[in-house]
Amino acid sequence: MQxxxxxxxxxxxxxxxxxxxYFYTALVDLFKSAYPNIDENKISELRYISYSYFKSILKLDxxxxxxxxxxxxxxxxxxxxxxxxxxxxxxxxxxxxxxIDFKKYKNDYYKAFEIEKKISMxxxxxxxxxxxxxxxxxxxxxxxxVSALGFLSNSNENNKKVYECLRLIHIAFQxxxxxxxxxxxxxxxxxxxxxxxxYRSLLDNKIEVKKINKNRFFQQYFYSSGLAAExxxxxxxKLNKSLELCLELNLLELKQFLKEEIxxxxxxxxxxxxxxxxxxxxxxxxxxxxxxxxxxFGTTLNESIDYGLEKIENDISKDxxxxxxxxxxxxxxNWISAYSxxxxxxxxxxxxxxxxxxxxxxxxxxVNGEKSEFxxxxxIINDGDSxxxxxxxxxxxxxxxxxxxxxxxxxxxxNKGGWxxxxxxxxxxxxxxxxxxxSIAGWTQSKCCISASNAYIFCNTSELNEYNDKTYxxxxxxxxxxxxxxYWWTSHIYATSFAIMAFQxxxxxxxxxxxxxxxxxxxxxxxxxxSDSFLGEKSNFYTALxxxxxxxxxxxxxxxxxxxxxxxxxxxxxxxxxWKSIRILAIPATSVINHSEVTKWRKSSFxxxxxxxxxxxxxxxxxxxxxxLSLKSKII
Length: 636
Hints:
By secondary structure, the protein is mainly alpha-helical. The chain has helices spanning 13-25, 27-31, 40-65, 71-88, 98-118, 128-138, 143-152, 159-180, 182-187, 193-204, 214-224, 227-249, 252-284, 297-315, 334-344, 351-358, 361-367, 384-396, 403-410, 425-432, 441-444, 448-457, 465-477, 493-504, 510-522, 540-554, 559-571, 618-635, and strands spanning 324-327, 330-332, 530-531, 538-539, 583-587, 602-603, 610-613. α12 (227-249) runs antiparallel to α13 (252-284).
């Protein structure tokens, strides 16, 4: 499954602002080691003054950005700043040279606001150089800290390097802020350099600006054109240069901060590139229904399978893998390929696809005993869900699991029989950069969706009989209202359907398969489809899962329901052979145990508490094909 940068969710102004707020209020501590021999009492006093001052400045900036600001708030901020200045005078008497520097920095600060007010979208003179100079002016008050530290240490030896280090950081922050605030700034008519660049690019490329939702159109073009990534690369370049100076000055705490900021920006760039790739992939998907002649059901069924398999085969990459689902971890590869291979194994119609997938590196290495564990893609830690489908595909194609593979697999099973996605807390924390106080119990506890799929995957694997028995008992103990919860999915249908198919394979559990199936039928829509639980949208994926469960449980008993669902599926195939997908994957925060704990789910590919779609439609199409192939094997 997916690994996400939970500690610093990208595309988040809150994250960006909070890290910057920390930086500005911790300036003294971040730079003090460049100025030795300062009395600790003076450092303590300067720390308090700096913290209070920048806290007030940040509040004042917020007030000034707010159109409906209360004048009382501004007056209060100004009063706080005056009080802090009085306290600062105890460190530097008013005749001290520090105040000459401080006055200059204040003048630069207010000058920046005047310049910013005059900028318009059509300002052809607004260049990168002017933008960076403006960014420097907007943050000029921070340079007073450099003067203060220099005067207190009676040495300005490092002032030049510290000043440059700070200047570069300010410019990087401005780039990052203007990318994050692009849409909000447009709405508030606060024109920034990225707006000007976007406007110029639209003119140069003779692209007509849509009058409806103009600001949203600007934002979409800003990202899709590559301008947003360019701005972030500029920020990253400044931070890298600042880091070099930081290393020369041996500022250890600042070094760590800069590395985290550089990593965060790189994550944003990666996500922008992934979004562009996702948009292009979705654009290639057909939006036109495949026209069929429904006079002969057998012919229609065969044609539908052929078109679907052709679509999947065409989507196999040069490295013999299938890619789908984009998250902060990147694009899913191994997990998608393993799932597809398992679901399509055992049918002559899909034999060629299975053979191609077996020629991928991940299957070759696994068969040769060179690799026994893997995850969502090659860039993240291993997970039990991906491993189960990989090994399941092997057993379905008559490969025997060796002891090492079995040990790797059962390491994801708890004593109570349930299966988890992740079983190594240290690896998760390191990969996600999570603090020790953030719970990851949601991702490490046993889940019914994984347990149900594993029960089905390995129901006929004799080497795992003792583990399977525990899994069945775990599932029975977690049935509520004749359904099983699905942690990683937007509907209980995922776990419930796999449980039905697993229970049906064991005579002592068949009554439970019927019980769950009877309840599943109650949720079927009039047109034969099933909907997801989160958004209430009709879903080809869940319709296929439910239909497949009913087919494998008892085709004759559930024939009416099955034929209604297959009719729905056949009528909703697209011209390219695919079936449309919706947001079926749910990714909770690591601390979330139950979906009910999440107050709001976002439609997004990145972060946590999000709902993600299989944008290439591979996951949905493979699942539909499995249901059609299973049905065909029953009726022909």
